[in-house]
Amino acid sequence: MKNGYYHMYCPKDVQSRYKLLVFDETNKPFLPLTDFYDDVSRKISKSSALSYLQSLLPFFTWMDRYSNYQGERVTWSYHPEAIRVAVEDYLMNEMACKVREKDSFRFVKLSNKSPNTVHRFLSALKSFYKSLITLRQYMYANPLIDSHAILDDYKVHTEGVRENKPRMPAEAGTEDPLVHRRLTDSYFKLINEEWQPEIIDDPFLYHKVKQAGNQANWSLREKVIARMLFETGARASEVIELTIGDYRSRKSFQEVNTFNKGSHGRRVKFLRFSKDTVKLLFQYINQERKKFDPLGRDFDFLPNDEPMFLTERGTPFNYQAWYPHWNKVITLLDMRLNPHKTRHWFVTISMREIYNISKNDVEIAQRKNELITYMKWKQKDTIEVYEHHFDEESHRNLHDKMLENMTEKEKEYMEQSKRKRTKKTVLNVLEIEKETELDTDIQALLDGLED
Question: What region holds the Core-binding (CB) domain (predicted)?
Fold first, then answer.
């Protein structure tokens, strides 16, 4: 969809309360989406906030052009019923989804023509109305929330076996135990996306990207970031926004502290990478980075709060500046690989390694729990049970073995590349339901990666 809603960053020489402005089709500032980004970027990472915004821009353009509720165009401020009708039409006509009525909500089923952004779009729109309600700009209930589901869930957790009496505590032993299910309060519920993570089981993927990076003349900065993504399982922002102090704060020279999604910048987890990446990192800091540092400092003279990665202007590097470098290489590979899939790849390879080196089920379970905690999976009730069992040293041993195997796979891949040249690189994504039965613990772990 061309010439629709778009966004622009506020120029540095212009004073404004907004760092980003959204414009409609007539090039007029559109404050609802501008205020939404401003609000949500304070609560989640800027890259996630931008991803939400970008998934909403086509919808707002479509609403202005094609929406219809009782003969009128729908705007964002209409009552919930009109918004739901517009969203349902958009899902069916623009995203090739099948929508089916069910009780007080709608089931949404993806087709083979549906984009992989349906879930993000629905989450973003739900977040948009949550923000606008908080900002007192939308005067109704959130149209993306099924209020009946919330009420029914409340009744289940409060009504007991005695008529018109509250539920007795579990210790009383008189009530049937509650079944804890993964419920959603969304009005539009995706029924064929739940519990279907992507399992990227290509052992050569890491080395394909590194080789393509060399062909694209990646700088040391891009090489280090890419290596860290594959070797640590981190989100891109968790690597790109590292500081010098994050590295100095760890006792191991192969580790850094970093923030987690939802930690609001607090360093709550660590990342671990190979010795070769450490060498490349210091080569970058003391050579390439030093050239762009305003004071020409190397590692020993950099204060802890200095960003690890800089732009060529000497300013802190960020996701928006980094992504074009990544996309250039992925385009060169003729592959669809967004940066978050490196996280899925890391977990898949790690789980394979766990099964390869574990001697029994006890060791498998222990190493799964160590990996879950390292990844800071957001299922708190699962993580907290095993938190005290996690031994960083044990994970280091496992991680070293995984890095050794990655090095061996690189050598094997390079040998194969010499013998056989392929025209197109294909990302090997397993269809879980069709091709393999996955351990439920692994599947739950991979689902948590989207958090």
Answer: 27-133
The residue out of 134, 161, 179 marking a domain boundary is: 134
Average pLDDT, the chain: 82
The CATH number of whichever domain residue 368 belongs to comes to 1.10.443.10
The two tokens of residue 15 are 């004073």
pLDDT tens, residue by residue, 75-121: 999 999 999 999 999 999 999 999 988 777 899 998 888 888 999 99
Token pair recorded at residue 264: 């609001």
User: In this structure, which long-range contacts are made by residues 274-278, counting pairs with CB atoms below 8 Å and at least 24 apart in sequence?
Assistant: 274/227, 274/231, 274/403, 274/406, 274/407, 276/227, 276/407, 277/224, 277/227, 277/228, 277/231, 278/253, 278/254
Token representation of residue 193: 């996306």
Q: Of 215, 61, 60, nearest to 132 (Cα)? A: 60
Structurally, the chain folds into a number of domains equal to 2
Q: Which domain holds residue 121?
A: 6-134
Is the separation of the CB atoms in 174 and 168 below 8 Å? Answer: yes
User: At 382, is the pLDDT very low, low, confident or very high (cuts 50, 70, 90)?
Assistant: very low
Residue 139 domain-assigned (yes or no): no
Q: What percent of the chain has pLDDT over 90?
A: 47
